[in-house]
């Protein structure tokens, strides 16, 4: 079991066969040292790719993205889900459907922060149906930037997200891949970690 799989088993709460709660270190309270280890692991996997920018989505993608950005020494841009009064520049926008909240959200970033010539690593906390990931990919594509791949903290492999991204030709790196879960336990698809 890798360090994240162990943490999920120790602290995660399976709310149903499809929803995992990890509020103690990722989605509500953040464990900074642990998140740094996650960021380092994602960064290691894309170290040789010449990443120039990380793009994520508020709010739970920000912590792993910032630590990966610290390792790769690149800026981290987060897409906003709500219109901000201070976000007045030219915007790139897309729409994301949330299966957990059963609602559509517009997401946006300022054009000036992601440009053609950028080689982007997209990071998010969970990969489920792939909606958030594809929405972020849409923003980056609209900026004419290149997508080097996706760094995901927890992938629910029994849902269609990975398949959708791979069908589009994207590289997907997930630190933990949940194969199956129930209130009796969680099983993982073995994933090797590069950092200790
Ligand atoms: P997707 O767009 O791939 O269907 O879902 C990704 C987004 O939904 C993530 O950014 C995450 O916020 C949320 N999400 C999906 N599944 C789960 C889950 O099992 N637990 C938690 N905490 N968030 C989830």
From TrEMBL:
<dbReference type="Pfam" id="PF00156">
    <property type="entry name" value="Pribosyltran"/>
</dbReference>
<keyword id="KW-0328">Glycosyltransferase</keyword>
<keyword id="KW-0808">Transferase</keyword>
<protein>
    <recommendedName>
        <fullName>Xanthine phosphoribosyltransferase</fullName>
        <ecNumber>2.4.2.22</ecNumber>
    </recommendedName>
</protein>
<comment type="function">
    <text>Converts the preformed base xanthine, a product of nucleic acid breakdown, to xanthosine 5'-monophosphate (XMP), so it can be reused for RNA or DNA synthesis.</text>
</comment>
<dbReference type="InterPro" id="IPR010079">
    <property type="entry name" value="Xanthine_PRibTrfase"/>
</dbReference>
<comment type="similarity">
    <text>Belongs to the purine/pyrimidine phosphoribosyltransferase family. Xpt subfamily.</text>
</comment>
<dbReference type="InterPro" id="IPR000836">
    <property type="entry name" value="PRTase_dom"/>
</dbReference>
<dbReference type="GO" id="GO:0005737">
    <property type="term" value="C:cytoplasm"/>
</dbReference>
<comment type="subunit">
    <text>Homodimer.</text>
</comment>
<feature type="binding site">
    <location>
        <position position="27"/>
    </location>
    <ligand>
        <name>xanthine</name>
    </ligand>
</feature>
<comment type="pathway">
    <text>Purine metabolism; XMP biosynthesis via salvage pathway; XMP from xanthine: step 1/1.</text>
</comment>
<feature type="binding site">
    <location>
        <position position="156"/>
    </location>
    <ligand>
        <name>xanthine</name>
    </ligand>
</feature>
<dbReference type="GO" id="GO:0046110">
    <property type="term" value="P:xanthine metabolic process"/>
</dbReference>
<dbReference type="InterPro" id="IPR050118">
    <property type="entry name" value="Pur/Pyrimidine_PRTase"/>
</dbReference>
<feature type="domain" description="Phosphoribosyltransferase">
    <location>
        <begin position="32"/>
        <end position="157"/>
    </location>
</feature>
<keyword id="KW-0963">Cytoplasm</keyword>
<feature type="binding site">
    <location>
        <position position="20"/>
    </location>
    <ligand>
        <name>xanthine</name>
    </ligand>
</feature>
<dbReference type="InterPro" id="IPR029057">
    <property type="entry name" value="PRTase-like"/>
</dbReference>
<feature type="binding site">
    <location>
        <begin position="128"/>
        <end position="132"/>
    </location>
    <ligand>
        <name>5-phospho-alpha-D-ribose 1-diphosphate</name>
    </ligand>
</feature>
<dbReference type="GO" id="GO:0000310">
    <property type="term" value="F:xanthine phosphoribosyltransferase activity"/>
</dbReference>
<keyword id="KW-0660">Purine salvage</keyword>
<dbReference type="GO" id="GO:0032265">
    <property type="term" value="P:XMP salvage"/>
</dbReference>
<dbReference type="GO" id="GO:0006166">
    <property type="term" value="P:purine ribonucleoside salvage"/>
</dbReference>
């Amino acid at each position: 079991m890798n360090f994240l799989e162990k943490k999920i088993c120790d602290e995660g709460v399976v709310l149903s066969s499809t929803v995992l709660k990890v509020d103690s270190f990722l989605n509500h309270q953040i464990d900074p040292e642990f998140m740094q280890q996650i960021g380092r692991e994602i960064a290691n996997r894309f170290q040789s790719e010449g990443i120039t920018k990380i793009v994520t989505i508020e709010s739970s993608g920000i912590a792993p993205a910032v630590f990966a950005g610290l390792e790769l020494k690149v800026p981290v841009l987060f897409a906003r889900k709500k219109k901000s009064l201070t976000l007045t520049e030219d915007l790139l926008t897309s729409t994301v459907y949330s299966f957990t909240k059963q609602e559509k959200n517009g997401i946006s970033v300022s054009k000036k922060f992601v440009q053609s010539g950028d080689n982007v690593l997209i990071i998010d906390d969970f990969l489920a149906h792939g909606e958030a990931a594809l929405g972020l990919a849409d923003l980056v594509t609209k900026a004419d930037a290149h997508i080097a791949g996706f760094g995901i903290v927890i992938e629910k492999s029994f849902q269609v997200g990975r398949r959708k991204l791979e069908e589009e030709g994207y590289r997907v790196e997930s630190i933990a891949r949940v194969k199956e879960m129930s209130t009796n336990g969680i099983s993982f698809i073995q994933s090797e970690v590069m950092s200790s």
